[in-house]
## 1
Amino acid sequence: MCFPHAGGSASFFRDWADGFGPHVEVVAVQYPGREDRLVEPHLVEVDELVDPLVTALSAAADRPTTLFGHSMGAAIAYEVARRLEQRRPAADLRLAVSARPAPHRHRPGSVHLRDDEGILAELRRLGGTDAAVLDNPELRALTTGIVRNDYRLIENYRPGAGPRLRMPVLALAGDRDPDLPPEEVLGWAEVAAGGFRHRVFPGDHFYLVPRRAEVAAELARHLG
């Protein structure tokens, strides 16, 4: 199951199934307030997003499941993994995180308090947003609203306390990510009691776009 970044949507992972065999089903989470859930209100607390996902996944926990999140999605994936492991301790679960510090190294922020130009500056700094979206007034207004709400959610996030994860954890990053020095991914080892691996790819915060095939191969290896 794939969890998108702030401002992202399920379509970010549309073509990812191509990187796996027929025995792997790629499912992407669609957060409220975008694409086919555009009319639904944005959520303001991580718990509001995580709890329904844990309930839904608990019913399907008889199948091996890997939770993969990029940036904000990594924090969401971690919270789902932590609670799902507590609820279904016998489930075959794995966690893969990308471009995000470990939960105990979470840094609150204030990007969500910026005006629209400040939000756009952040998007341009990180890359990953189509220039055509930023140049279109209507799409730009829609995008800044979604991004502001997502940043509010993740910047006010407070990681849950609990035991270290029993499931294997894979941490990925880009070597030129302006928000995450490559060595910071090693912090995820401190929450992983069930085994830890990491890999750093060439690229910035959205290294996984040009490196999708390599990232998929790494995830396939993590799947075992």
## 2
Amino acid sequence: MILPIIGYGDPVLRKVGEEVPSDYPNLKQVVADMYDTMYNAYGVGLAAPQVGLSLRLFVIDTSPFADDEDLDAEEQEQLKNFKMTFINPKMLKEEGEEWGFNEGCLSIPEVREDVYRNEKITIEFFDDDFNKRTEEYDGLIARVIQHEYDHIEGILFTDKISSLKKQLIKKKLQNIMDGKTRPDYKMKFVAKKGR
């Protein structure tokens, strides 16, 4: 089922997500709905707070990045085949050079900015069968994970840009909060909640 994506300004996007118990009701369905919602919006990652659930859970599928002709064949292959559910993740390490990439967010439509993140991460998490895993990732996969991990910590990519850039996008962010932005996917805007 395709869920509405929560727009910028909603308090749920600022909460630190709660641990997901292994007996969480309908967890498989929640995960399936999150993938459906992400694909419907042409995203590469989606965190539970973005569908109104304050949980430590996110899903990723980097296959849309595999078409980037600037990447070598090995990187394209990695991106094409990376699809993963992260339940109760814990970032163990972020290391390596920081590098910039133009990021966007389904909760902040029509806003893209360069964000600097570490190139390599080590993360511990449970997969969708609740198997505990510890993995290392680098490059674009690490970046998408870091972006989604920020969501479950109540952090948005716009928090990581300069104050000048924040001033420049202020009007766009206000338009999202006012429900004046019209992405081609279902959204729930903070201003329209009470109506």
## 3
Amino acid sequence: MKLDGRVALVTGGASGIGRASALRFAAAGMRVCVVDIDGEAAQAVADSIDGVGLSCDVSDPAQVEAAFTRCVEELGGLDLAFLNAGITIHWSGDIGSLDLDQYRRSVSVNLDGVVYGAVTAVRTMRSCAGSGERAILATASLAGLVPWHPDPVYSLGKHGVVGFMRSIAPNLAPEGISVHTICPGITETGVLGDRRKIVERIGVPVMEPEAIADAVLTAVTAPAEQTGTCWVAQHGKPAWPMTFADVAGPDMRLNVPVARQHN
């Protein structure tokens, strides 16, 4: 996908991976709408790249729709949506002690926020004039590819993101919309919080957000035929595409892309 002169919207864009990616998009010539629940921080990032900063809670579909509408009003279109916002919750990891309000908050941001963002991105892209390749990216995690014992609820949301993004990719390909998922390892973000020293003490390297922004650029500039790819980002390695095992059998006869229904 060509980036120069195009428009990107980034959720969770005020810090971490979102901020690093917004800066990278701007450096590639994109106009960027920075979206975050912390509106002041989003505006600060946007000011540094001559972009637009907006406050938005991605777990609220009305706020998501309003943010995309403002992006188009301010920047004239939408070519790339990077659905990056995510959180962790504070609990022991013992599923028997899980607070259900905390559970709903985790899933509402980490999974619902991606679904709301993808739905709104597709509708917005369809409504905007213009041509050329477009893309929707979402941040998942290694916890979306393997069991993550310290936080099964986080793993639940990220597994959902991986399955959802892989499933919509072939449906959107005929419209020139590529879909990719970014699956980082341990990274210096708000999700990690103040645990970096503890993590590094046990021998786990912590990546900087800029390393994940490299993976994001790899995904968004990948050939269109690579849509549906999950890009794994690990310390000291370039981003690489995850290979999933095929599940053979007659059930797969039903597993075909769904054509868009025009009204």
